[in-house]
């Protein structure tokens, strides 16, 4: 990736694993904090950070390309409200204290469409409690997908946790159309946006 990437990743990244990490310490204040799990190309993370400078955003992905794009946006727009994590969300969320995050986004995750692979889906019964442990009571879990079956199984998993309200439908006005969403539209699929509010504590 070169010297520029190395310089930016050293300045703006967080380690996947390690000691407990409170967002207020990371960003130096009590800003509204969002965790985006699977940031893709990074377009939404940069767009949101630019238009919501008083919000703090942590974006995690296993792929370097999206992380690099976010870092480029951080430099271009001189953003101080973004941190990136290159790694596994299932590991990173364990660094975050319970009830420390205001929103968690899971937008267009890998659908793992084959039945034998569905145990790899991110929003599933055995993982939902771990992924959402950092979410505050009153915080919001957001999902966008163009796979109807994924939306159904995710809704079942969230409901089974007993932590959340019934989902609401509707695309937030700040959620820009991503590359993955445009691909789905070309293939005849519409996006489904769901949001749940956490109503129960740990």
Question: Can you give a write-up of this model?
Answer:
The chain is an alpha/beta fold. It has a single domain (30-197), classed as Rossmann fold, CATH 3.40.50.150. The chain contains 8 helices and 7 strands, in the order ααβαβαβαβαβαβαβ. The protein has helices spanning 3-12, 23-27, 43-51, 64-77, 89-92, 128-132, 148-161, 179-186, and strands at 33-37, 56-61, 82-86, 101-107, 135-145, 168-169, 192-197. The protein has a 7-stranded mixed sheet with strand order 3-2-1-4-5-7-6, with helices on both faces. Helix 4 (64-77) links the parallel strand 2 and strand 3 (82-86). It is an enzyme of class 2 (transferase). One of its GO terms (molecular function) is tRNA (guanine(46)-N7)-methyltransferase activity. This is tRNA (guanine(46)-N(7))-methyltransferase. It comes from freshwater metagenome.
Order of helices and strands: HHEHEHEHEHEHEHE
Assembly annotation: single chain
| Named CATH architecture | 3-Layer(aba) Sandwich
Structural class: alpha/beta
EC number: 2.1.1.33
Catalytic activity: guanosine(46) in tRNA + S-adenosyl-L-methionine = N(7)-methylguanosine(46) in tRNA + S-adenosyl-L-homocysteine
GO molecular function, one term: tRNA (guanine(46)-N7)-methyltransferase activity
Protein name: tRNA (guanine(46)-N(7))-methyltransferase
């Amino acid at each position: 990736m070169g010297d520029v990437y190395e310089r930016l990743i050293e300045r703006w990244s967080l380690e996947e694993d390690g000691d407990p990490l409170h967002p207020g310490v990371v960003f130096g204040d009590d800003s509204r904090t969002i965790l985006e799990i699977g940031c893709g190309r990074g377009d939404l993370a940069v767009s949101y950070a630019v238009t919501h400078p008083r919000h703090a955003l942590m974006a995690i992905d296993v792929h370097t390309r999206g992380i690099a794009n976010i870092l480029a946006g951080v430099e271009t727009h001189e953003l101080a409200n973004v941190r990136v994590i290159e790694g596994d969300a299932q590991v990173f969320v364990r660094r975050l204290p319970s009830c420390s995050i205001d929103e968690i986004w899971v937008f267009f995750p890998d659908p793992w469409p084959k039945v034998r692979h569905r145990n790899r889906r991110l929003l599933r019964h055995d993982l939902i409690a771990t992924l959402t442990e950092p979410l505050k009571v009153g915080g919001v879990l957001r999902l966008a997908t163009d796979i109807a079956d994924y939306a159904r199984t995710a809704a079942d998993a969230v409901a089974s946790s007993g932590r959340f309200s019934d989902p609401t439908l509707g695309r937030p006005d700040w959620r820009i159309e991503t590359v993955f969403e445009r691909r789905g539209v070309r293939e005849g699929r519409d996006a489904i946006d769901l949001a749940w509010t956490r109503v129960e504590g740990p």
